[in-house]
Write a structure and sequence with these properties.
This protein is an alpha/beta fold. It has 18 helices and 25 strands.
Length: 554
């Protein structure tokens, strides 16, 4: 059996100019990055006023077995083409941290992949590096301002802006810098986030023009002065230079699937520590260029989908037409209490026991957000008909259809049944609404998410979070939406509470004001904004030969 990378390397890849032409983009609207990648200029949308249908792909609560959400997204877009629909993809860019760590990349798998797979999973077009550079330029400007006399009276003990890098490196979570004497700056506590957790990545993904980008960059709060007042990037006159570093990164990246379906891969915020969606610009471009747009939100629906609806759709004025919830027999058995090593063994009772997790996600999508949904069963060879039947019958009882999906094995052909159901759902009336009213206080918004989406009994706020709440109230940030940073492995903030837990509280240990991105980050549980590498990182298996052929990359 071929590996994902071998399948991708054996694919016949079309020139990106040909892919662009298939959706009405002329070569003068492209900035080519070799033969098979291009950035798309805004003039590509001239004369294109009609919007297509927007389809979100999300999933049940993730497990170590993997669910195949990106693979399903890609196969669905190919499947829509197979049934004669003009479709496109709008996905996130992979971070190098997971690629060399444990999670893997974000280019799909089997015969449902975006290509060139190696480029997408590695440096791609340099967007994340541009975010890193802009983030660290702002950090340098902050410390330089203090060194040069500190006219803004920035309190070095209350600087909230961290440096970043696109790698999992737990050693850098906390640091003391500025050592070595007066000429090397003021010693202070500092630290690093992973680049995709930087507010600048969120800004890149939520802005809709260069001017919007600059305004958002200027609103970034880097810390507080000695009087407790917020200090912004605009006070440091930083927004112009930051925007210059992001002038190319702001443009969506066009690639293709194995079957030649056009795909925008742009922006990459994590969903457990950020808002987890590709860029607004890429999504809106795709909606103008096709009739059906398949996009994806990170991790389970409690994280990615909630943020897609309550943050991205709210800020960008988007309305989803249908939702696909990805589930697997293995994942449901895991939620039903089966050990990872035994997930390949048939166990109908465990599937049934794990179904409440799926039911809660269905309930959230169809009852809280009021969007039509279908469950896509990402089928594996060892799944039994009895196990599949449990899922289908359970979904019917929950008011949705469950469809077997074979895109990993068959590409678009294995996704035609799912595509037909999605088209049907897109033609239904839906009364999409947000989880919470923007007029609620930040405290009430967090409580609403925790109780309605997670099923918690309530929320507790640590002392650090309460201190930031006072700033939020005093400075008028209560109207912003909330981005909850939470473990992806549970509805709760406790990684051990799988399936559909009840009788728990969510603890908000700290809050961050992301005024530039336009949301408040609520840090819960033990969530880290700089991940670490596993005991055996994927980096140990990745190699390249004399001919430049990469191996071990999935």
């Amino acid at each position: 059996m071929l590996t994902d990378i071998e399948i991708a390397q054996n694919a016949i890849i079309k020139p990106i100019t040909q892919i662009a032409d298939s959706i009405g983009i002329k070569e003068e609207s492209l900035e080519l990055y070799g033969q098979f990648k291009a950035k798309v200029k805004s003039n590509a949308l001239a004369g294109k006023d009609k919007d297509g249908k927007l389809i979100l792909v999300t999933a049940i609560t993730p497990t170590p077995a993997g669910e195949g959400k990106t693979t399903t997204s890609i196969g669905l877009a190919d499947g829509l083409r197979k049934i004669g629909k003009k479709s496109m993809l709008a996905l996130r860019e992979p971070s190098l941290g997971p690629v060399f760590g444990v999670k893997g990349g974000a280019a799909g798998g089997g015969y449902a992949q975006v290509i060139p797979m190696e480029d997408i999973n590695l440096h791609f077009t340099g967007d994340i590096h541009a975010v890193t550079a802009a983030n660290n330029l702002l950090a340098a400007l902050v410390d330089n301002h203090i060194y040069q006399g500190n006219e803004l009276k920035i309190d070095p003990r209350r600087i909230t802006w961290k440096r970043c890098m696109d790698m999992n490196d737990r050693q850098l979570r906390y640091a003391i810098d500025g050592l070595g004497g007066k000429s090397n700056g003021m010693p202070r506590e500092d630290g690093f986030d992973i680049s995709v957790a930087s507010e600048i990545m969120a800004i890149l993904c939520l802005c809709q023009s260069i001017n919007d980008l600059k305004e958002r960059l200027g609103r970034i709060i880097i810390g507080y002065d000695f009087d407790g007042e917020p200090v912004t990037a605009s006070m440091l006159k930083a927004q112009g230079s930051l925007a210059v570093l992001l002038k190319d990164a702001i443009k969506p990246n066009l690639v293709q699937t194995l079957e030649g379906t056009p795909a925008f891969i742009h922006g990459g915020p994590f969903a457990n520590i950020a808002h987890g969606c590709n860029s607004v610009m890429a999504t809106k471009y795709a909606l103008k260029l096709s009739d059906y747009v398949v996009t994806e939100a990170g991790f389970g629906a409690d994280l990615g989908a909630e943020k897609f609806f309550d943050i991205k759709c709210r800020i960008a004025g988007l309305k989803p037409d249908a939702v696909v919830i990805v589930a697997t027999v293995k994942a449901l058995k895991y939620h039903g209490g089966v050990n990872k090593k035994d997930l390949g063994t048939a166990n109908v009772q465990a599937v049934e026991k794990g179904m409440p997790n799926l039911y809660k996600h269905i309930e959230n999508i169809t009852k809280v957000f009021n969007v039509p949904a279908v469950v896509s069963i990402n089928k594996f060879s060892k799944d039994t008909e009895e196990e599949i039947d449990i899922i289908k019958k359970g979904c019917i009882a929950a008011g949705v259809t469950a469809v077997e999906c074979l895109v990993w094995e068959k590409g678009g052909e294995g996704g035609t049944e799912l595509a037909e159901e999605v088209v049907r759902l897109c033609d239904l009336q839906n009364n999409f609404e947000y989880c919470y009213d923007s007029r609620l206080s930040i405290t009430e918004k967090i409580k609403t998410i925790a109780t309605k989406i997670y099923g918690a009994d309530g929320v507790e706020f640590a002392a650090e979070a309460k201190a930031v709440l006072k700033v939020i109230n005093d400075k008028g940030y209560n109207s912003l939406p909330v981005c909850v940073a939470k473990t992806q492995f549970s509805f709760s903030d406790n990684i051990k509470l799988i399936n559909r837990p009840t009788g728990f509280l969510v603890t908000v240990r700290d809050l961050r004001i992301s005024a530039g991105a336009g949301f408040i980050v609520a840090l819960t549980g033990e969530i880290m904004t700089m991940p670490g590498l596993p005991k055996i990182p994927a980096a140990q298996s990745i190699d390249i030969d004399d001919d430049g052929r990469i191996t071990g990359l999935f």
